[in-house]
Amino acid sequence: MKAIRITTFLAPDVEAALRDTAAEDGMTVAEFLDEAIGKEVRRRMARRKALYRNRLSARLEPLEPSSRLEWP
After folding, report:
1. Most buried one in 22, 46, 60, 67, CB count within 10 A?
2. How many domains does the chain fold into?
């Protein structure tokens, strides 16, 4: 129901385009917006996860036994 409330703030032509696009996919406006928002959230979460991995791997550089540690 929240998605339908969002459409009341859109211009009439935008609302009509949104309804048409949702209907083409066989969905209601609420289902269409829920799917679109879900995709965006998953994309952003994956990006954050990748950035975190890159930062972590940059901090954890491999140790080379010959240069960093002395072996007996």
Report:
1. 22
2. 1
